[in-house]
Write a structure and sequence with these properties.
This protein is mostly beta strands. The protein has one helix and 37 strands. InterPro entries: Quinoprotein_ADH-like_sf (IPR011047).
Length: 438
């Protein structure tokens, strides 16, 4: 049950007055700042305080927003996972706890250790333990996936195999052995729908409800994702390479060749139209796309792995992406570095304005309070008083200051107009975000 703020408690509204860097910290306050899938790169960037001051003073002052304390939830946790506007799951050392956003009532608890991710999949919630926290559902090292009923939290099934959602089905596989062992299963009951025949490589294709595989004799076989029926068997020209991988774009199927050193660009990529299988050019064949905020997507090419911002509707490139580590946000890409003392998430070095790509330093020194590969919507920095955190919300029209809260925050997520955060001590707190004051 949520522990609500008293009815007569005053509304929490704190005007920060200035963004960080506009004035020095008072005694005992914070010092001025001295300043995710495997597609970010690192670089050491030094930001001078003068640059921060210049970026901040040029910004248009924000209208005053407001925060109101809603509840401190029962339970302990470290990582907030907003599944949708109706359900939030908080992961902790002892398991997962689900809360309804309507009233913030605890819906269920599941005991587990080493949980790193939660995802809603229809009326099922998938909980993953072990592996990489930043890897999403792809490429996780061995761990366990537990499926629970979204409403009751009842355990439906568990598996040590890798599982990935594919449309309304699950792809379950084990990479051990000389050939992949691939199964298509029902997400609710984990019933086997069909098993992929022995193959050199394979990939599922949600756009075309298909599974593609490369047989031992070099034939390319397309299966129906739901039934396993063979749609067609093709024998296109493949790269002259020891190994061949299958890659997919919006309208084409590609085959990239590589040798033992794992450099696919050495042998090139051959592309074929997915409908006719006529050979096509590799231009604008994006093998992976994700929301990068600001109405744009991040996209990557096969072979050389170049990254671009693209129009998500047309697929046309807008500009190339920097060779630095970045995370997406609605206010533009955030170039990030190592966290400052007191935070575990990455520190913002600069942000790229979505329309122009211009580097802005108005958010330098803030920290992303989420790190799950989705666009970052909340930033924090050490407050002026001990044990507090300043908060800023990121929207497509830029940053909006939220205020100071009396906790050192670890992880946050936005569920509609509510901000849900875990603290460094493991508490779970909820604030409402009201409309901005004129």
């Amino acid at each position: 049950m949520a522990r609500r703020a008293p009815e007569d408690a005053p509304e929490l509204f704190i005007d920060l007055g200035v963004l960080p860097g506009e004035e020095p910290a008072e005694d005992g306050g914070p010092a001025l700042p001295h300043g995710p899938f495997r597609w970010s790169r690192r670089i050491a960037v030094a930001l001078a305080v003068a640059a921060v001051l210049g970026g901040v003073t040029a910004a248009v002052p924000d209208p005053r927003p407001r925060l109101s304390a809603l509840a401190v939830l029962d339970g302990k946790g470290t990582q907030v996972q907003v599944l949708d506007d109706e359900l939030v799951v908080v992961l902790g050392p002892d398991g997962a706890t689900a809360y309804e956003t309507a009233g913030w009532r605890q819906r269920w608890q599941v005991a587990a250790t080493d949980l790193v991710h939660a995802a809603a999949f229809g009326d099922v919630v998938l909980l993953r333990s072990g592996g990489s926290e930043n890897g999403g559902w792809l490429g996780w090292p061995a761990g366990q996936t537990t499926a629970v009923d979204r409403t009751t939290g009842q355990t439906l099934w568990r598996t040590q195999r890798y599982v990935e959602p594919a449309g309304d089905l699950l792809v379950s596989y084990s990479p051990e052995g000389s050939q992949p062992d691939v199964e298509i299963r029902d997400p609710r009951r984990y019933d086997l729908r069909w098993r992929l025949p022995a193959s050199r490589v394979w990939v599922y294709d949600v756009r075309r409800d298909a599974v593609w595989r490369l047989a031992a004799d070099g034939a390319v076989v397309e299966h129906d994702l739901h039934t396993g029926a063979v749609r067609r068997t093709l024998r296109p020209r493949l790269p002259a390479a020891k190994y061949v991988n299958i890659v997919l774009s919006r309208e084409a199927v590609g085959f990239e060749g590589y040798e033992d050193n794992g450099r696919p660009e050495q042998r090139g990529v051959l592309w074929y139209d997915a409908k006719t299988f006529a050979q096509v050019t590799g231009a604008r064949q994006w093998v992976w796309e994700s929301d990068c905020g600001g109405g744009l997507s991040c996209a990557y090419t096969a072979g050389d792995g170049r990254a671009f911002l693209i129009d998500p509707v047309t697929g046309e490139p807008v500009r190339s992406l920097p060779e630095e580590e970045f995370v997406p946000s609605p206010a533009g890409l955030l170039l990030v570095g190592s966290p400052d003392l007191g935070f575990i998430t990455r520190r913002v070095l600069a942000r790229l304005e979505p329309a122009t790509g211009r580097r802005l330093t108005d958010l330098a020194g803030w920290h992303a309070l989420s790190d799950d590969g989705t666009p970052v919507r909340v930033l924090g920095r050490t407050g002026a008083r001990q044990g507090t955190t300043y908060l800023t919300e990121l929207a497509e029209d830029g940053p909006h200051r939220l205020g100071e809260v009396p906790y050192l925050l670890r992880s946050c997520g936005l569920a509609g107009a509510a901000l849900v955060c875990t603290t460094m001590s493991g508490d779970i707190a909820v604030w409402g975000i009201g409309r901005e004051r004129p």
